[in-house]
Amino acid sequence: MADYYQLLGVDRDADADTLKRAYRRMARQYHPDVNKDPGAEEKFKEIGRAYEVLGDPQTRARYDQFGEAGVSGAAGGMPDMGDMGGFADLFETFFSGFGGSAGGPQRQRGPRQGDDLRFDLNISFRDAVFGGEKEIQIRHLETCGTCNGSGAKKGSGPVTCSTCGGAGQVRRATRTPFGTFTQVAPCPACEGTGQVIADPCPDCSGQGVQQVRKRLRVNIPAGVDSGTRLRVSGEGNAGQRGAPAGDLYVVLYVQSDSKLRRDGINIHSELKISYLQGILGDKVQVDTVDGPVELPIPAGTQPGAVLTLKDHGVPRLGNPVARGNHLFTINVQLPGKLEPRERELLQELASISTSHPKGKGGLFGGLFS
Ligand code: ZN
């Protein structure tokens, strides 16, 4: 689907009034009762969906940040809400300026709590192990400081919605071959609250909230892994009309390391040793997340063996005193070329060794002949 701003023919920084005017103009142009072009109905639905998303500062913020993925099923998670939104907004086109006529039971919705937001953060392998503080820059909605979130211009206040007469609901009669039936829906002009802002605050166009960039410091605990979610309380979008703000969820992605591989709280890496170190044993310096550490290689260490260095793995999330291990997979390096003296000694070794296969010249015999 095309970009919602393009669909409505407005700039990305268009204010609420411009959006509303653009939507009404387009909706009139493509309304299926008026426009019989093939594709007009589809276009009409797309316009409705675009305005449903952009007309609400919360969903608009999500759309700006995540595109369509951020708003799919935004209004309650129903996959076909796009069409429903188109219908709901249609009421606005029909009812605006007609004065309160709809009755029905009083059903008022309270101000809506702000949306939770998600922020994806890449962190290094080391930061995931030991934790640390990270600065991030987010965009979220904050309560408008000019009107303190009321949306009304200084000195004015909300008035009874003229579209629904304060009832918060509208009725719509549809004539069909089977008769006329009536649908009741929340009033689109006041979003079911029964009140509207007659004199909107100039700074937020009456929305009561404003899109703001903000720097935040996030504390990353030791032992996090890819997919760990950190909740930053109250840093989601501000609620409408003083309702509480949502939370910000920071989702972590741990970058891979060229040498170290993580498996839960354990760390794996490869360790190259010479065949002599494997046979005779040794002590070698190995790289760990704690820096170089001495690792004993027992005599007779086989290729592919795994040596464990205890407590140099990843701290357990929430209990950093407990740590995993660092596991080294042994890669035994055989010399490609021998010095004459080395060759002599190895040949002598082969002649007395009990550990290599005997027989017709044996393995070494074949190799050295
Ligand atoms: Zn304001």
Structure description:
With 369 residues, this protein is of the alpha+beta class. The N and C termini lie far apart (74 Å). The model is unreliable at 73-108 (pLDDT under 50). The protein has helices at 4-8, 16-30, 40-54, 57-66, 81-95, 125-130, 275-280, 340-352, 362-368; strands at 117-123, 132-143, 158-160, 169-176, 179-186, 195-197, 209-220, 229-232, 248-254, 261-263, 266-274, 282-288, 291-297, 306-309, 315-316, 319-323, 326-333. It has a 4-stranded mixed beta sheet with strand order 10-11-17-14. Strands 1-9-8 form a 3-stranded mixed beta sheet. It has a two-stranded antiparallel ribbon with strand order 2-7. A hairpin with a 2-residue loop joins strand 4 and strand 5 (179-186). The chain has 9 helices and 17 strands. It has 4 domains: 1-79, Helix Hairpins, CATH 1.10.287.110; 104-255, Urease metallochaperone UreE, N-terminal domain (HSP40/DNAj peptide-binding domain), CATH 2.60.260.20; 261-334, HSP40/DNAj peptide-binding domain, CATH 2.60.260; 343-369, no CATH class. The longest helix is centred in the first third of the chain and has 15 residues, at 16-30. Helix 2 (16-30) runs antiparallel to helix 3 (40-54). Zinc ion binds at residues 144, 146-147, 151, 201, 203-204, 208.
What is the overall shape? elongated
Largest sheet descriptor: 4 strands, mixed
| CATH homology-level superfamily of the largest domain | Urease metallochaperone UreE, N-terminal domain
Bound molecules: zinc ion
Strand portion, in percent? 25-35%
Total number of beta strands: 17
CATH class of the largest domain: Mainly Beta
- Widest beta sheet: strand line-up: 10-11-17-14
Write the CATH fold name of the largest domain: HSP40/DNAj peptide-binding domain
Decide which structural class fits the backbone: alpha+beta
Low-confidence residue ranges: 73-108
How many structural domains can be distinguished in the coordinates?
A: 4
* Average pLDDT level: 82
